[in-house]
Amino acid sequence: MRKWLFCRRGQIAPLLIAIIVILLIAIMVTVNIGKLSLLKTSVSNAADAGALAGASAMATGLSHGMGNIGSYSDSMLADWATAQAFLGNPCLLDCVTAWFVFGSHVSSQVTFYASAVSRAGKVLEEAENSAKQSAFSNAGIDEAKIKEDGETYEDYLKRKTPFEQWMEDKKYEKENTYSWEESLKYGQTNATQADRINSVTVEVETPSWLVTPLPGIMVFLPKEVSPEDELCCYGCCGSPVLPTTWGLASVIGAEDPVKVKVTRVKPGTNLGLWKTSYKTTSGGNIISSAEAHAYGGSVLPAGDDYDSELSKTE
Fold first, then answer.
1. What's the pTM?
2. CA distances from residue 118 to 69, 97, 107, 147 in whole angstroms, order as listed
3. Where are the domains of the chain?
């Protein structure tokens, strides 16, 4: 009887070992799939956050706040109204002064318009940098901070990670990719890839803008010259109606989207029983993209400010 029981226990042992191996492989597969899902989520979040940050920067730049494109449109209207108030009563001015006022008005309009065009270019640059900053910050970069030789634990905690320092130095403004080496533990090896390089790449495409002025006229009110009104300008200042501008008509392309594409590369790891793989089913790296745009505003004098929203995610 005892011999029979021993035989039963000896036959179960190989089965238990097989079951344990299968369970370990199943756990590793589950962990790998879970990790892949988390990576895809972080990449998607990074693309969404980057696109929305870029669109928000564009909406702010188009607004009527001080130093933004809409504010230059408001300034053009104020300048036109001031000049028209003087030139609308030419008997207050002699001919030379009247032309000087008009010339100053034209010069101011050109300056405000040039400032708006320059600001438009800077806004698009700010939108690109904001999109990159937000995308990298939300990409789930898990670079390990290595303790340096002789470094105390307190100094270790105070020291920034290489990625934090990279972000603080704003290197993302000139570089599209951040790379770091995979940190392996417990004798793991990378057999699925020749190297151990992780990377996050953020590509941003901003729209093209064209700032268009709002055409208008400057009116010299007619008045007959009489001996009592020797300084009246009618008849000596030329045409009583002159072309000018008095604001911005629009920014063509203002509601076009900013596009953000985030690519995550993570090398696989050989765990002995299972080789992890962090690629999509199509065989490529983990990629997500998003688009967002500014909408609902106007750069016309005293127009409404813009808002921003996501318009497309993939």
1. 0.81
2. 9, 31, 16, 47
3. 13-142+152-313
